[in-house]
């Protein structure tokens, strides 16, 4: 049996324009069997003043609108040597151009390379680390 999963490697150099930072991270996503829930684990390292983490719609070299929130903490900001955020997204989690659509709309963006994770900081409000979401098919044993 195959489980549909996705991954995004997060770096400052992937930002548009690039950000020079010590921060880095990774996000892993797993889709349930009937594609109605998308669980995620977001890990960040060496991050100062984190305020938001989102999924955005957009290709590799473009900035786009927010379509789902992974973390929303305006006050206080979070600074971590190593931190993890976990959660689950459903159709009700979708915002912006995907609001009111089924989760499959987000999954289609992810499958086609038209979505990315962006983690924002107080010092880099438009994003400090970013990574394009890509498919990672794993076989269950």
TrEMBL record:
Which positions fall inside the CHRD domain?
2-138
Domain of life of the source: Bacteria
Cross-referenced InterPro entries: CHRD
**One short Pfam family name for this protein?**
CHRD
Protein name per the record:
CHRD domain-containing protein
